[in-house]
Amino acid sequence: MVGLMLNLEEIERKIPVLAGFTAHYRKAAVPVLARFESQRRNAIVFMFLSIVPLCGALVLMAYEQNLPEEVMLISVLTFCGAIGLFFLGVTQLRASRRKAKVALVHLICHYLGFIYREKPDHSFVNCFKELGLVARYEAMYLEDELSGEVSGLRFVIQEAALMDWKTRPVNPVFSHFRRVEDRFHGLIGSIECPTAFSATTVVTYKKNILEKLSEQSLPGQRVFTGGTEFDAAFCVFSTDKGEALELLSPESQRRLLKLNAFFNNGLAFAYHRGHFWFTAHRQSDWMETRGDVDDVSDERYAALLALDVAMIHHLLDVLGVRQKAEIIEV
After folding, report:
1. Helices in the chain by DSSP H: which ranges?
2. Hey, which residues does 201 pair with through a beta bridge?
3. pLDDT tens-place string over residues 291-319
4. What is the dihedral of CA 21, 27, 32, 33, to 10 degrees?
5. Which residues lie below 8 Å from residue 292, measured CB to CB, with a gap of 6+?
6. Angle, nearest 10°, between helix axes 69-112 and 21-28?
7. Domain limits of the chain?
8. Residue 137: which residues within 8 A CB-CB, separation 6 or more?
9. Residue 302: strand, helix, or coil
10. pTM score of the predicted model
11. DSSP state, residue 213
């Protein structure tokens, strides 16, 4: 990934709004993250140490027929205790990493003038459902809300996981067995739009139409923009064809296609009630670096999180609000 190749200083040069953040990070965050990294490593050591009595207990239990009952009881208790210690280490590992992430994201957001909430207080997912940007769902999980104002435009972005319960008969005994099916996992957001409009225009990718939505669930009528690449990637519906074509000018189409590539062709959006509403599928969690950088005190860890937080400037570029921030391909 790009974060493994870019450090904070390189990201500063690519995203000017982060200019000076490296020095701020080294002064304010390094001591705190070093403490969390120490806790993370201690948790890993704790987990590995619990494996030793666990293996010993398994060996003794394998020879239970030749052991006195007292020894067998001790081996069982040791096994249970080792399992408990191992999961305690796992809990401490996750907690230290979560605390490091929250502290660092707060630092980045404070530097940029944004507000971060680990657990959103509310949700506007229903609006996305009404617009046809997400399919029907029965369960919802929200985390990592980012809000603020840039160039006079207010925005809110959340990470959402929308799920549906599916009944799947297995046999007469478990005839009502239900499983969870993911309907959506990614980002949902709303940004005030600098361009005035009165109609509702919804743009979704064709795979979404074929698999999860229907044309009847989208407002207005189908609109073809005339842009070959854009019409091949998206389906456009609007209550005002003329306004939709004005909003989706050739220059806007070019920027939207670039942003769609940034989100691995998982972008859907709408112009509605003065806002730009968008959903973006993501295979990985937002503001998470699991598997990329393990050391939370590593500057590359901060670089990955800074990229996710600064993503709002890419979206503003799509709306024509120039932030001089290039889209970094991942």
Report:
1. 2-5, 8-14, 21-28, 30-62, 69-112, 125-131, 206-211, 228-233, 241-247, 250-262, 299-309, 312-318
2. 238, 271
3. 567 788 888 888 888 888 888 877 777 77
4. 50
5. 1, 3, 4, 300, 304
6. 140
7. 2-112, 115-318
8. 129, 162, 163, 164, 183, 184
9. helix
10. 0.79
11. -
